[in-house]
Amino acid sequence: MKHITLSILIAMGIVSNTILAQESTTVEKKYTKEVERLAKNKMVIEAFGHIKNQMDETTEDLITLTEVLAPPFMEDERGKVFAKMLENAGVDSIWTDKVGNVIGLRKGTSGESGYVGVDAHLDVVFPEGTDVTVRKVGDTLKAPGIGDDTRGLTMLISMLKAMNKAKIETKKDLLIVGTVGEEGLGDLRGMKYLFNESGLDIDSWIAIDGGSLGRISNAGLGSKRYKLLVKGQGGHSWGAFGLANPHHALGKAIDVFSKAAWEYTSGNSPKTSFNVGRIGGGTSVNSIPFESWMEVDMRAIDPKNLDEIEAIFKKSMEQGISEYNSSGVRGEVTYELIKIGDRPSGELPASLPLIQRTMAATKYFGETPSLGRGSTNINIPVSKGIPSVCIGRGGQGGGAHSLHEWYLNDEEADESIQLALLITLSQAGLGK
After folding, report:
1. Which of 30, 109, 260, 426 has the most other CB atoms within 10 Å of its CB?
2. For residue 55, which of 420, 422, 415 has the smallest C-alpha distance?
């Protein structure tokens, strides 16, 4: 299969991981004609009309889903609501897999193997207890998570309703999916299960997440994340002074890592990054802590660089703790490294039919396609060479990942759903 061949070429270095995402956004004429012909089909025109006419319903769906909080690993309740929406919109079957992905199957007419998947993620970044009540301020809707990625979920429902109302059939089977674990420590667990364990034969994937029309991700920005846990005996800051201190050891480890990682990233191309994002531990200001911890995020465009910065991190932790224990302190600290995130890098060429169709459809709506990379659900299929794109959810919005997130429907909001439908139909093919 083509995606297997591509992944082998990437692994061998025959296809450059650092160049592909920078390719020209030139669209071959055959794809432009294909998309234009599809967009002029009477049933597709009718479906576009239904998308526009049902925008009030879509907004109500957005409010309903937003007000069901779904932190990573706690998506079940929102998943049930989304499943009911899929059922009401009309699919051939619905199931929730063992990790929580909610999957609707819409059968095609050809009997061909290989599903075309379309997804938005169920989870949001906000913890349990966050107030997600939607407030209306004029035409603007305000609530944590209302854009990222709840809006994407409602786009899937609108597409499905429009296809059924217009009696559109596709050649290939469609999977319409609300995925789990896209945010933070969810670590793409929903997509990892779909592509590594589910047994589903998926030959292409379209994710809806982020940004405006024209935004197309054809590359995944990889990351590795670790928690360093340092432990010691603990004691009183005065009475046990001189005892090995986990906080001090942690500081030494950070210093060693920062110097080595900065040297590596400063002379490195393409871009590689590192960040100590969270630190914790201790019981009081006058106590030597018995435990100290930090969480570290490392990212790279090139998988080779990601492996190398990970190796630097591990060596630095060993060196830093060892040097601290040898510094004259009484006793010693121990440490443990816990991997808390692993998102693979990968890039796909702009010449792939799915990416060509996505760019052609984007141009059809008068927008300029812009290829790029991000840390999204497509990291998993892209790393396997499976044709995948991530497109924007459209409309006006802001404050993503903040308590002040907002969303406003505008003309682009209609078109973003129509665009997602056009891309999906072009990839799955119109049935007879």
Report:
1. 426
2. 415
pLDDT in tens, the chain (432 residues): 434 444 433 333 323 333 344 456 899 999 999 999 999 999 999 999 999 999 999 999 999 999 999 999 999 999 999 999 999 999 999 999 999 999 999 999 999 999 999 999 999 999 999 999 999 999 999 999 999 999 999 999 999 999 999 999 999 999 999 999 999 999 999 999 999 999 999 999 999 997 788 999 999 999 999 999 999 999 999 999 999 999 999 999 999 999 999 999 998 789 999 999 999 999 999 999 999 999 999 999 999 999 999 999 999 999 999 999 999 999 999 999 999 999 999 999 999 999 999 999 999 999 999 999 999 999 999 999 999 999 999 889 999 999 999 999 887 899 999 999 999 999 999 997
Tell me if residue 325 falls in helix, strand or coil. helix
Q: CATH number of the domain at 326, please.
A: 3.30.70.360
Q: How many folded domains does the chain comprise? A: 2
Q: Write the DSSP symbol of residue 172.
A: S
Location of structure tokens 């409309």: 395
Specify burial of residue 423 (Cβ count, 10 A radius: 0-12, 13-18, 19+).
Answer: buried
**Measured distance CA(89)–CA(153) in Å, rounded:** 13
- CA neighbor of 157 nearest in space, from 421, 428, 368: 421
- Residue at 160: amino acid letter: L
- The answer as to whether 24 is a domain residue is yes
Residue with tokens 């890039």: 347
- CA dihedral defined by 210, 360, 424, 428, rounded to 10 degrees? -150
Looking up tokens 């979920």 gives: 153
Query: Which one, of 157, 139, 188, lies nearest residue 62 by Cα?
Result: 157
Domain C-terminal end among 300, 318, 343: 343
